Amino acid sequence: MKVRAAVLPINAGKFAVALNQDDAAEIGVSEGDRIRVIKSGKSVSAIVQIAFGLISRGKIGVYEEIAAELNLKDGDEVDIYPISRPSSVEFIRKKLSGKKYSREELYSIISDVVDGNLAEVELTAFVLGSYLVGMDFDEIEWMTKAMIDTGEAIEFEKGVVVDKHSIGGVPGNKVSLLIVPIIAASGLLIPKTASRAITSASGTADTMEVLADVNMSVEEIKEITLKTGGVIAWGGATNIAPADDKIIRVEYPLSIDPRPQLLASVMAKKGAVGARHVAIDIPAGNGTKISSVEEGRKLAGEFVELGRRLGLNVSCAITNGSQPVGRTVGPALEAWEALKTLEERKGSSSLIEKSLGIAGLLFEISGFAQDGYDRAKMIFESGKAHQKLLEIIQAQGSKGILKSDDIPIGEEKYVIESKFEGAVVDILNQRVVRLARLAGAPKDKGAGVYIHRKRGEVVKKGDPLITIYAETAWKLEKAIEYAMENPPIVVSGMILEKYPSFKVV
Amino acid sequence: MKVRAAVLPINAGKFAVALNQDDAAEIGVSEGDRIRVIKSGKSVSAIVQIAFGLISRGKIGVYEEIAAELNLKDGDEVDIYPISRPSSVEFIRKKLSGKKYSREELYSIISDVVDGNLAEVELTAFVLGSYLVGMDFDEIEWMTKAMIDTGEAIEFEKGVVVDKHSIGGVPGNKVSLLIVPIIAASGLLIPKTASRAITSASGTADTMEVLADVNMSVEEIKEITLKTGGVIAWGGATNIAPADDKIIRVEYPLSIDPRPQLLASVMAKKGAVGARHVAIDIPAGNGTKISSVEEGRKLAGEFVELGRRLGLNVSCAITNGSQPVGRTVGPALEAWEALKTLEERKGSSSLIEKSLGIAGLLFEISGFAQDGYDRAKMIFESGKAHQKLLEIIQAQGSKGILKSDDIPIGEEKYVIESKFEGAVVDILNQRVVRLARLAGAPKDKGAGVYIHRKRGEVVKKGDPLITIYAETAWKLEKAIEYAMENPPIVVSGMILEKYPSFKVV
Predict the structure, then answer these.
(1) Closest in B89, B121, B443 to A120, CB measured
(2) Domain CATH for A453
(3) Is A196 known to sit in a ligand binding site?
């Protein structure tokens, strides 16, 4: 049936169209059924909604996602016909009844995920099937390969390509802004793609964006890596392992992270950028994704095994995730801390130790050096890493800020002081993140927190514990209100004060 | 924030609104987040979509479902504010990690299901949690009670109230059109609510609708039952156990029917209409939901136990579901067969035996008669059941058809003849249903199939096996094409002809 497009500039969150009820009846589709929408040879499958009145007969309401995909304008003619559920849905049902996926089935599912062919219910069933029924290593390997194959990839004809990834969960983790220039300064190549914050206060891409453009194509990533040795790009702007972004949309509202998806998502991204040696940062501790070192070890073993199957040399670092890394949380504050640390060649020991440790691990597993940590320290202290980051920023497209003190931080601020004399006994990651997000991070780049005292440090009554920064006064208010009710920093003695309702996590 | 409604007359399939991107940023919500929408004291929670341009600042695009719920017109002022995920989502996550629900948690989840407070991903997670993790009998009991309590209910001050339900899976199951008048003619009360077809070719409500109006409120159901002894109403038009309809929307695309939901859904509906004695029809056999009598027995035991916990006297009949009941499939054809059988007091033995058997079971468990089957047979053969059905039709609102031969059947038809001499060895339920649906059933009431020969019956070459009826020629074409590729009736000898690709199911 030929119909004319009426663009509905609304993000429906999926490939959806609205059909006039009579047109829908004529082609025999009901709400929730699927049709194929074709425009000049390009086509997508779309979920049908039924319209009464707004969309007249002979028209089709196309939401933003489809309009963008097919490049549709009002009045464009498209062809539509009903289609049945993709066979992927049968495969997903098989998993729900406890069966193992075949290689071909996983490829077909991941392709349909990428092409937007699965409805929300079906995609949720896929993710929950992984979560509740699980996958064995064959399936995880096949899924990872399917995620690589259904996206773009980079191949480096020369050079030793390494990469690092953090599974996340610890706030303030701006280590990539130190690790990438250290590695790049050594002559190895590190084409790092990073994510934006989903539940955190700043993703590495958000932090880097304070200093440089992070929206790059795979061609640009390759070109800049070859030129400067490294890059810090936003993975979401590329078409690398695009299945992952769609899967996250389901995981996020349920706050679940099925192990097979976690493994496949990380390794697909690393495999697709052509890395041969990969270091995985696994933050462990209260308030992170991995609660104990034992659990971290198990996950590390799985990463190494998956790497072996993909031909990647993987090594993991289980890191201390029990409190934020460094002293800042929020895009601008983190960019400031990272750049300042490189400029002054000193700073928060947790930030420097961790960055040098992971850079050193990459030196060791790639065969570049046996004394990896020392080599990383040398490059850091020589100032070469600082110069390299400035070089990378300019290659990516500088925002005009090349000095830490030029970075604009939110002008609204509030200092929380200690009401007691004592020592910091705990910093609660989840409260720190919530606080920074209420203040406006990651959308308001200048919003976030500065932590004056970390665990074990001594405070006197009236000493600053944390400073909240925001770009607008009302967000600062909301953040302060939250912090008063839910203190993110626990000074010894405080816990008893809130009996009986106080909970530490 | 106060905004003005712009009604989008589109069924979004959920409570959704479209916010201008700047307004969304101002109140701090992103796509997929939730807001509460308030109009004159009534409010709903809605999933946010982000609009660019179509919805200007200070406006909110409200889809059909919300416009209807809040009775909104263009320009109406509503109040909105961001809300967090309902705590039900936490409870659902608990189940995903293997825990047992509490009574309060299930009540809260079912309330949120009914109020449209759960996003599709979350509702899917609830259903898959039941399917994969399961529920024990406490949980099933609590869920059933929550489903009853979150909807309307009927209480009969006098009379013995009985009811029947089929778990479905066998085509042509028009037995309620015989059972209800037999029961009603005896003086017992049977306020039967029925469903429309979801995956079948005709639900009892679709079949009854050929003869009478089936859209009734609970007050009308009670009134007509008190007046005539029985009713056959569409449950979906009432507000009885409304959670069920929303849950089905998720089960249907995945073709799953978690046992806890199946049990709760049936028993909630029976409990809510005030029935004290309930007969459950469990069709078993190839191509139905229950593949063996053993499995049927297990399910029967579960129904009886759940009934005991709810104070309902439940008895189950495991019935032969290996081929269609009677000879017709499709709304008008089934209404025709039921009415014809009552008029002539004879007809297909499978239809009559099954109807009398279940009516008899109800007579026995309610203490009305010890020789239930014989009593049902007497009422059937006396013509009182026929008179009673006509009475019920008129009480519900007749469509002007009171004789079977006046029922309009699709005018396009095609007879499939046997190419062999032999005997019918199999009738494939799923193919029969697909055939009837391709011909237009259940939407085209006159579409369906008439089965000339059932299992064990002898055919000569050229004898009619099945006649396909349709309302439009192109749907008939599609049905014929399917039947040629996928013969629904297997005559002995045929199977060998299609080697190697022929599959019986």
Answers:
(1) B121
(2) 3.90.1170.30
(3) yes
Instruction: Give me the residue from A32, A49, A64 closest to B10, CB to CB.
Output: A49
Residue B231 near residue B191 (C-beta atoms within 8 A): yes
Which of A28, A49, A254 is closest, CB to CB, to B11? A49
B87 backbone dihedrals φ, ψ, rounded to 5°: -65, -20
Same domain, A220 and A343: yes
Q: Is the pLDDT of residue B191 over 90?
A: yes
| A493 pLDDT higher than 70 | no
Summarize pLDDT for A137-177 with one digit per residue, the tens: 999 999 999 999 999 999 999 999 999 999 998 999 999 99
Q: Are residues A306 and A388 in the same domain?
A: yes
pLDDT over 90 (residue A29): no
Give pLDDT, residue B27: 84
Q: Closest Cα to residue B206, out of B432, B412, B437, B453?
A: B437
Q: Residue B187: its pLDDT value, please?
A: 97
Residue B309, in any domain of the structure: yes
Contact B177, B224 (CB under 8 A): no
Instruction: Say what the pLDDT of residue B35 is.
Output: 92
Amino acid letter for position A269: K
Catalytic pick among B138, B257, B281, B371: B257
Q: Which residue of A has its CA nearest to B63?
A: A51
CA distance linking residue A13 with residue B31, whole number of Å: 7
Count of domains in chain A?
A: 4
Residue A249 is assigned to a structural domain of this protein: no
Q: Any known ligand binding at A75?
A: no
**Is B257 one of the catalytic residues?**
yes
Residue A155 in any domain: the answer is no
pLDDT over 70 percentage in chain A = 97
Q: Look up residue B302 and give its two tokens.
A: 């579960």
- Let me know whether A189 and A333 are in one domain: yes
Of the pLDDT bands very low, low, confident and very high (cuts 50, 70, 90), residue A461 is very high
How distant is the Cα of A485 from the closest Cα of chain B, in angstroms?
A: 18
CB atoms A12 and B53 under 8 Å: no
Helix (H) or strand (E) holding A63: strand A59-63
Q: What gap in Å lies between CA A46 and CA A24, rounded to an integer?
A: 13
Half-sphere exposure of B338 (CA within 13 A, CB side): 32
pLDDT tens-digit readout, B284-312: 988 788 989 999 999 999 999 999 999 99
Chain A residues whose C-beta sits inside 8 Å of any chain B C-beta: 8-13, 18, 25, 28, 31-32, 49-55, 61, 64, 85, 89, 92-93, 96, 119-122, 124-125, 128-129, 131-133, 249-250, 252-256, 443
Q: Do B13 and A31 touch (CB under 8 A)?
A: yes
> Which of A15, A121, A249, A443 to probe the B interface (max B CBs under 10 A)?
A121
pLDDT at residue A134, rounded to an integer: 96
Letter string b/e over residues B88-115, b meaning 16 or more CB atoms within 10 A of that residue's CB: bbebbbbbbeeeebeeebbbbbbbbbbb
Is B13–A25 a contact, with Cβ atoms under 8 angstroms apart?
no
Active-site residues of A: which are they? 257
Question: Both tokens of residue A35?
Answer: 């049709």
Distance CA A66, CA A44 (A): 8
Contact A254 B121 (CB under 8 A): yes
Q: What is the 3-state secondary structure (H, E, C) of A446-473?
A: CCEEEECCCCCCEECCCCEEEEEEECCH
A492 is in an annotated binding site: no
In a domain, A246, yes or no: no
ipTM over 0.90: no
For B63-98, how does the pLDDT look when each residue is reduced to its tens digit (9 = 90+)? 988 998 899 999 999 999 988 788 999 999 999 999
Site from B92, B132, B482 to mutate, A interface, most A CB atoms within 10 angstroms: B132
Task: Mark yes or no for CB contact A121/B122 under 8 Å.
Answer: no
Q: Is B199 annotated as a binding residue?
A: yes
Q: Which is nearest to A121 in space by CA: B254, B185, B481, B186?
A: B254
